[in-house]
Amino acid sequence: MHLAQLNVGRLVAPADAPEVAEFIALLDPINALADAAPGFVWRLVADGTDSAVAYQHEFGDDLLINMSVWRTRDDLWNYVYRSRHLGVLQRRREWFQRSVQVHSVMWWVAEGHRPTAAEGMARLATLREQGAGPQAFTFKEFFAPAGAASD
């Protein structure tokens, strides 16, 4: 099993606005860092590009969707909290509207499976409506795959 993650956010301004230009400029290097990180498997991008911002979906033009797949929880944790990604994460309030709802979710997928945006949004809805469980969870409320110990 591999670990899928989805996080969503609404920018404080359109993606081409000066208010978010620094964030948009950081996307390529931060995504390249993820692509090269130990345990990275896949991330959602627009067809024919390497861009996550250009990805079109049915959940609103102002909603940015970030979704990726990792070998293990530790691999994802190390990228999120022990790489240059952390500096960008710590500045998210400069670029994203505050959300009162949970904005990130994790779940297990079969090796080789590439989740869709709809699948990720459904997992996020499950987490929001039912709380953490084996089908939708977070770093704080983590669930190992069935029959396995947490890593």
Explain what the structure shows.
- With 151 residues, the protein is an alpha+beta fold.
- It has a single domain (2-130), classed as 2-Layer Sandwich (Alpha-Beta Plaits), CATH 3.30.70.100.
- The chain has helices at residues 21-36, 73-81, 85-90, 92-95, 117-130, and strands spanning 2-10, 40-43, 63-70, 104-109.
- The protein starts with a strand and ends in a 21-residue tail after the last helix.
- 17% of the residues are buried.
- The model has no long low-confidence stretch (mean pLDDT 89).
- InterPro entries: Dimeric_a/b-barrel (IPR011008), DUF3291 (IPR021708).
In short:
The chain has a single domain (2-130), classed as Alpha-Beta Plaits. It contains 5 helices and 4 strands, in the order βαββαααβα.
Helix and strand layout, with pairings?
Blueprint: E1 2-10, H1 21-36, E2 40-43, E3 63-70, H2 73-81, H3 85-90, H4 92-95, E4 104-109, H5 117-130
Antiparallel strand pairs: 1-3, 1-4, 2-3
* Tally of individual domains: 1
Structural class: alpha+beta
Proportion of residues in extended strands: 15-25%
Low-confidence sequence ranges: none
Total number of β-strand segments? 4
Q: Could you give the order of the helices and strands?
A: EHEEHHHEH
Name of the CATH architecture: 2-Layer Sandwich
CATH topology: Alpha-Beta Plaits
Number of continuous helical runs: 5
Tell me the strand order in the biggest sheet.
2-3-1-4
The CATH top-level class label: Alpha Beta
Organism: Catellatospora bangladeshensis
Protein name: DUF3291 domain-containing protein
Pfam family, one: DUF3291
